[in-house]
Amino acid sequence: MSKILIIMSAADVWERTDGSAYPTGYWAEELAAPHEKFVQGGYTVDFASPGGVLQPLDKHSADPEIAGVDCARYVEYAEKALREFGPLVKLDEVDVDDYVAVVLPGGHGPVVDLHQDADLGRLLTAADASGKIIGAVCHGPAALLSAVDTEGEWLFAGRRMTAFTDEEEQLFGTAEGAPWLLAARLRERGADHIGGPAYQRHTVRDGNLFTGQNPASSARMAEDMIAALG
């Protein structure tokens, strides 16, 4: 049976420019919706993170006023999937050849740790070189920034992608005080960032790279990946 790897952040705090600590964690829908689609498609799904650390749930993703009426189902599904999987695989022990696809969900964690994780950068470089499917949703595309060569050149420069927009960050209330804004940073590094309407489902495909703008885009991104995997 083919396997797909979901790589989570290990961060539980996002330090702001004023030195305050903003609690973060995985966003339930961004983890649960793709996992559910992959399992329904007949894939085995593994979880990995830096150091094998299990990131906590972002409590905002369990608030129906923020995350929508289906959030309780996503929280229940995500917690069950993680519990049944057991200890996460340590990112530096992952063999990318074991997987047909790699998925990077959000929550704010990826802008804390994954964007500069050298082990992840090597893994993504190897995955892209072999044409493996790479998916990233919401703040997950921050993790793509880790893939730089010895000269500091970014592997995904020039690629079309989407991610949580600066407008969405402002509407969410986390733009002010953020060390940097994701969509702006992706553009600065050379991405062709294509944003859609705030908080509406929006996905972009560029070859083997599949990206979703926000939590509402998670399931569609996974469906697009499954279709590409055949």
From TrEMBL:
Coiled coil: none
The keyword Lyase belongs to this UniProt entry's keyword annotation: yes
Domain DJ-1/PfpI: start-end pairs: 30-227
Entry-linked InterPro entries: Class_I_gatase-like, DJ-1/PfpI, Prot/Nucl_acid_deglycase
Lyase found in the keyword field: yes
Pfam families per the UniProt record, alphabetical: DJ-1_PfpI (PF01965)
Keywords of the record: Glutamine amidotransferase, Lyase, Stress response
Gene3D superfamilies with a match to the protein in the record: 3.40.50.880
Family designation: Belongs to the peptidase C56 family. HSP31-like subfamily.
Protein name: Type 1 glutamine amidotransferase domain-containing protein
Organism name: Streptomyces hirsutus
Native organism taxonomy: Bacteria, Bacillati, Actinomycetota, Actinomycetes, Kitasatosporales
